[in-house]
Design goal:
Blueprint (H helix, E strand, L loop, with lengths): L1 H45 L58 H19 L9 H5 L6 E7 L11 E3 L6 H10 L4 E5 L3 E5 L15 E2 L2 E5 L5 E6 L4 H4 L6 E7 L4 H4 L2 E4 L5 H10 L4 E5 L2 E5 L10 E2 L1 H9 L8 E6 L21 E5 L5 H12 L4 E2 L4 H5 L17 E3 L4 H5 L3 E6 L2 H14 L7 H4 L3 H23 L3 E5 H6 L1 H11 L6 H9 L20 H20 L13
Parallel strand pairs: 14-16, 14-17, 15-16, 17-18
Antiparallel strand pairs: 1-7, 2-4, 3-4, 3-7, 5-6, 8-12, 8-13, 9-11, 10-11, 10-13
Helix pairs in contact: 14-18
Length: 577
């Protein structure tokens, strides 16, 4: 009996030691994995690639022997490149590793979701600011605090310009934005929304009902739920007037009845452009029209669409002579006031039966196309990804699940059979690969509105980028041509040159009916908030001859594929340089 007990005791000691050893090994392995992941994140941060700027790479590849950029480090065109769309080559073993600074799609998506989750949780934390602090804090802001007012989203009192910044909105930012656009009042709601106008809201609310803290300024109150914190910004207008832009739209033949075409008018001796623009701005109109000493205010409409311009000499003669032709032509100017006839947007009230993609290669103008579609249809667009910068600027569909079917269409850069066949139809946006590659490289290193530095362009990362992404530009189009069920091809250059006709095509494809006035409003607000200022010319050619040879082969491949599917080929400016 003692011998059996001794054996049992010996076995338990060995088991205890074994369990201890396995536990220690498990903890060490976990620590090593944690250190490795930490090192990877630090390494990515040091190379300038953030999760919010992460580029998502398609899962699949198809056609013409073009390989997925995630699997190629240094792709080279081969004689089989132009062979056809139905063949697909397996990448060589030495091509299985992407450039070091390219992050895998799954890793980036996880990081984006984690950041969104933490941001969402932080937004839900209890507010530490109450509405009664608003009066106390007004001394810190330049405008005069008027009070807390009710806000009806269906019929807003402050219905001038509208701005969103769900991350950095401050009272001063809203005041300055409204002052620059010639408005007298600035109102803030939901901690992140800014509204401008020249008329004070009628229904006052209790001060404590404005209890939303500004997203970009702790301790400051930015309205509340259906509540506006309103400031008078008249004292800011003198300084802001220097920064206001009155844009000359051209010389036009005057409508037959100006008073019927334009809702407001002024007759003033020695009338100047500034006088007319100030008058129309106070009336909250985006268009100022001058004929002699007459000033008219209104919107672009079917009667006066700003499309058929006349020779500017005709308007100059009108001002220099007193002939009978004096009333035939007029000068048109765009005031600082925003055209708000197309700024209202919402989610679809019922789930869409047709799942539509807005697909493009990165840098091809997808964000701009979304801006146009949202303002034309009045519905938000969704996204396969989550981009905090876009969400913060008003693209609210970014946070909606991409398969919710509550948005009019869904942005995607994906390619591959599985990812494409999820959609019932798609608008395929194509842009010149030379311009697309440069735009995406700028976004990668400087965000949606910035420019990469000369150091970035002259580094080894630029040729690596071109070698990897040029093939993706081609494979993206080829995959959608092969697997897409119903396609509308839109060339970025055609959309830019003929905005309204192409926008009408897109809206009809989405099966939405819109008014002519709404489309004219979109044309008046065509740029949106994500256009890079200027064209920042570089004093060197970023593309080497080797890069051009590579890109030109892909251009010919895509052009041939488009024509093979009875679509219009690529625009002439795409042709090899």
């Amino acid at each position: 009996m003692a011998k059996a007990f001794f054996r049992l005791q010996k076995f338990l000691r060995r088991t205890q030691f074994l369990l201890f050893f396995l536990t220690a090994a498990y903890l060490m392995a976990g620590s090593l994995l944690l250190l490795q992941r930490t090192h990877l994140v630090i390494q990515q941060g040091s190379r300038g690639t953030s999760a919010n700027q992460a580029l998502l790479v398609p899962d699949g590849m198809a056609g013409a022997g073009i390989a997925d950029p995630r699997t190629l480090h240094n792709p080279r065109p081969s004689p089989r490149l132009l062979a056809g769309m139905d063949t697909m080559q397996e990448p060589a073993p030495d091509q299985w590793h992407s450039p070091r600074w390219l992050v895998s799609r799954n890793s980036e998506l996880r990081q984006l979701r984690r950041r969104w989750f933490h941001r969402f949780i932080s937004d839900q934390e209890p507010m530490q600011t109450a509405g009664f602090r608003a009066m106390k804090l007004t001394a810190e802001h330049k405008g005069t605090y008027v009070g807390c007012f009710s806000d009806d989203s269906r019929e807003r009192t402050l219905k001038g310009a509208v701005f969103y910044d769900l991350r950095k909105m401050t009272v001063s930012h809203c005041q300055e934005a409204c002052a620059e656009r010639a408005y007298s009042y600035a109102g803030l709601a939901y901690g992140a929304e800014c509204y401008c106008g020249n008329k004070l809201p009628a229904a006052a609310s209790k001060p404590e009902e404005c209890n939303s803290e500004c997203k970009g300024e702790k301790g400051s109150v930015c309205g509340g739920v259906n509540r506006l914190s309103v400031y008078r910004v008249e004292e800011l207008q003198a300084g802001a007037r220097r920064r206001r832009n009155v844009i000359y739209r051209g010389c036009f033949r005057a409508p037959e009845n100006l008073t019927d075409t334009f809702p407001a008018s002024l007759i003033q001796p020695n009338l100047t452009v500034e006088m007319c623009s100030e008058f129309c701005s106070k009336k909250e109109f985006p268009l100022a029209v001058i004929r002699g000493r007459e000033c008219y205010c209104g919107y672009p409409t079917g009667r006066f669409s700003l499309r058929d311009g006349a020779d500017g000499l005709l308007c100059s003669r009108m001002h220099n002579t007193s002939s009978a032709a004096e009333g035939e032509y007029c000068l048109a100017y765009q005031t600082p006031v925003q055209d708000t006839r197309c700024t209202d947007r919402k989610f679809l009230t019922t789930k869409s039966k047709v799942f539509v993609a807005l697909s493009s290669f990165p840098g091809a103008g997808n964000t701009w196309a979304r801006h146009l579609i949202e303002h034309a249809t009045g519905y938000y667009t969704g996204s396969y990804y989550f981009d905090g910068a876009l969400y913060n600027k008003g693209f609210k569909g970014e946070k909606d699940h991409w398969r919710s079917r509550r948005t009019i269409c869904v942005k995607t850069h994906e390619s591959g059979k599985t990812e494409i066949e999820m959609f019932d139809s798609a608008i395929l946006l194509i842009r010149n690969p030379y311009k697309s590659l440069m735009a995406e490289f700028n976004r990668k290193y400087a965000g949606h509105l910035g420019y990469a530095t000369d150091r970035n362009w002259k580094s080894k990362e630029w040729p690596d980028f071109v070698n990897s992404y040029a093939s993706w530009w081609a494979s993206h189009v080829l995959d959608w041509l092969k697997y897409g069920k119903r396609l509308l091809i839109i060339h970025y250059e055609d959309l830019k040159q003929s905005l309204l006709p192409k926008l009408k095509e897109m809206v009809e494809f989405l099966n939405v009916t819109v008014t002519e006035d709404r489309l004219l409003c979109v044309e008046n607000n065509r740029d949106g908030n994500f256009k890079r200022s200027g064209a920042k010319q570089k004093d060197f050619e970023p593309f080497t001859q080797e890069m051009k040879d590579l890109i030109n082969r892909y251009i010919l491949t895509v052009d041939e594929a488009l024509r093979g599917r009875n679509f219009t080929g690529l625009p002439r400016e795409y042709l090899p340089r």
